[in-house]
């Protein structure tokens, strides 16, 4: 079958193209540009690339056209496919029909932690010899690619995104994934361009858990009140997890982790299942949020795939992580530079807490670009000041979407002012050049810098490492 993807350079669409190619199809794809790394990856996977959006890209006529949600209803290529009577579909529906059908669908959902937990579940199942398929919304460091096609009957782990599917299919992507089992990690208002309020956002997750069959399983974060409320709509068994000491309301966690003081690169924790001790385990991931990701993944793999806990424990220590999730990009003159995808205030807070625990010495710099549709708006204005509190120095880039009306736009200067009242060093800068200059002036050996954005952030990580490598002039 010849499948053509419109908007193929996106992370999800590009990975779907690779999956379809692995399944034996001829795959073509169009986009406005093919920048690395996705452009290079598409080339390596054998995807035929076509520049721009035009009806000419649909010659010869494909058997199936997948329209990415980057496309608006006026996209000339999408219009030519639809108006020309071609068979077309959305990204999540294509994934369901071509890759999930006949496999056991394991869907990882929630506002935070999806990518890391999806990669971890795939790693644990792979180490157990189950040869899972997967589609990860990031680049897992332990696999050659962010996707894998699975044999019929095998588990297929997919990152369950709540964003909408296409301009002609305004429903959440994860509604299409027919989950047999699922993890629900957290629910906090996000994607303000799609969900105007918390109620509409919550309804997306209610619809998701209602789609899990009665014979399925939902592994849910018992410490999140929104998750507990949504889980009540599930027809299947619900198994809650939490960390020791967390408020879990009216539910009793079946899976409970008690962190132990970390003295090395691995974070030890004591695991209890059903009230019984299962011994001490270790995870290479830092931060309590990542510990919860690990517990959720252990629960899913043990309960849904019957993998012995001892095997899971051994596999957990070898998890390499995911690019752009507390990824150490390098160390220059004793200063560590990390990259992280965090942009929601809760994710920012947990990332900074995790790095503060991992590196208690020196100053912690938070370098942040508000770029997503939600981060660029005032939706979480007050929450950001608290989110940056673990950092000693916060440097804020301008809002990435200046077209948003000023009355609705995030006030980065206001956030910096709030942080200064807490005794922190905080500045709203005029761009990357200013951030690099301030880091060069303030950073000292032993410090840690994390640059956070859901975009490329102008290659700031390499620029920071470059300027930090330059010896500072000696002062008399």
Give an overview of the whole structure.
With 476 residues, this protein is α/β, with parallel strands linked by helices. 31% of the residues lie in helices and 24% in strands. It has a ten-stranded mixed beta sheet with strand order 8-7-9-6-12-13-14-15-16-17, sandwiched between helices. A six-stranded mixed beta sheet has the order 18-19-23-20-21-22, with helices on both faces.
Brief overview:
By secondary structure, this protein is an alpha/beta fold. It folds into three domains: 2-90, Rossmann fold; 102-316, UDP-N-acetylmuramoyl-L-alanine:D-glutamate ligase (3-Layer(aba) Sandwich); 327-468, Mur ligase, C-terminal domain (Protein-Tyrosine Phosphatase, Chain A), CATH 3.90.190.20. It has helices spanning 11-22, 38-45, 76-83, 91-100, 114-127, 198-210, 225-231, 288-305, 309-316, 345-358, 381-387, 412-421, 432-442, 460-468, and strands at residues 2-6, 26-31, 48-51, 64-67, 88-90, 104-109, 133-135, 147-148, 155-160, 164-166, 169-172, 181-184, 217-221, 237-243, 255-259, 267-273, 276-283, 327-332, 335-340, 364-368, 393-396, 425-428, 448-452.
Main sheet summary: 10 strands, mixed
Low-confidence stretches: none
How would you write the strand order of the largest sheet?
A: 8-7-9-6-12-13-14-15-16-17
Radius of gyration: 23 Å
Strand content: 15-25%
- Give the number of helices: 14
Spatial gap, N to C terminus? 72 Å
Q: Can you name the CATH architecture of the largest domain? A: 3-Layer(aba) Sandwich
CATH class of the largest domain: Alpha Beta
What is the residue-averaged pLDDT? 90
E-strand count: 23
Structural class based on helices, strands and sheet pairing: alpha/beta
Helix content: 25-40%
User: How many structural domains does the protein architecture include?
Assistant: 3
Spatial shape: globular
């Amino acid at each position: 079958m010849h499948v053509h993807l419109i908007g193929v350079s996106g992370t999800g669409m590009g990975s779907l193209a690779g999956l379809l190619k692995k399944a034996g199809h001829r795959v073509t794809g169009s986009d406005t540009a093919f920048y690395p790394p996705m452009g290079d990856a598409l080339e390596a996977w054998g995807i035929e690339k076509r520049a721009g959006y035009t009806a000419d890209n649909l010659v010869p006529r494909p058997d199936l056209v997948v329209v990415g949600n980057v496309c608006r209803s006026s996209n000339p290529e999408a219009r030519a496919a639809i108006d020309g009577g071609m068979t077309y579909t959305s990204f999540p529906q294509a994934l369901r029909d071509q890759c999930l059908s006949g496999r056991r669908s394991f869907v990882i959902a929630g506002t935070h932690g999806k990518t890391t937990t999806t990669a971890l579940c795939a790693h644990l199942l792979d180490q157990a010899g189950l040869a899972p398929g997967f589609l990860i919304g990031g680049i897992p460091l332990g696999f050659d690619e962010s996707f894998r096609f699975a044999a019929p009957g095998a588990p297929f782990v997919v990152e369950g995104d709540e964003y909408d599917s296409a301009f002609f299919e305004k429903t959440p992507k994860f509604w299409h994934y027919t989950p047999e089992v699922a993890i629900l990690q957290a629910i906090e208002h996000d994607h303000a361009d799609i969900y105007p309020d918390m109620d509409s956002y919550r309804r997306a997750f209610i619809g998701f858990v209602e789609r899990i069959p009665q014979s399925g399983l939902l592994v849910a974060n018992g410490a999140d009140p929104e998750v507990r409320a949504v889980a009540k709509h599930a027809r299947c068994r619900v198994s809650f997890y939490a960390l020791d000491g967390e408020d879990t309301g009216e539910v009793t966690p079946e899976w409970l982790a008690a962190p132990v003081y970390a003295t090395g690169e691995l974070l030890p924790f004591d695991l209890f299942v059903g009230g019984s001790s299962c011994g001490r385990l270790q995870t290479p991931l830092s931060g309590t949020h990542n510990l919860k990701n690990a517990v959720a993944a252990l629960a899913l793999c043990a309960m849904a795939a019957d993998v012995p806990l001892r095997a899971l424990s051994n596999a957990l220590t070898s998890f390499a992580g995911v690019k752009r999730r507390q990824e150490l990009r390098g160390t220059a003159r004793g200063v560590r530079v990390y990259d992280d995808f965090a942009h929601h205030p809760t994710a920012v807070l947990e990332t900074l807490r995790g790095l503060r625990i991992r590196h208690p010495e020196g100053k912690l710099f938070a370098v942040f670009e508000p770029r997503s549709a939600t981060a660029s708006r005032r939706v979480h204005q007050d929450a950001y000041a608290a989110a940056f509190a673990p950092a000693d120095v916060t440097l804020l880039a301008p809002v990435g979407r200046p077209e948003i009306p000023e009355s609705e736009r995030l006030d980065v200067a206001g956030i910096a002012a709030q942080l200064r009242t807490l005794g922190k060093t905080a500045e709203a800068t005029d761009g990357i050049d200013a951030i690099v200059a301030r880091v060069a002036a303030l950073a000292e050996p032993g410090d840690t810098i994390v640059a956070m954005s859901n975009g490329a952030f102008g290659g700031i990580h390499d620029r920071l490492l470059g300027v930090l490598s330059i010896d500072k002039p000696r002062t008399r």
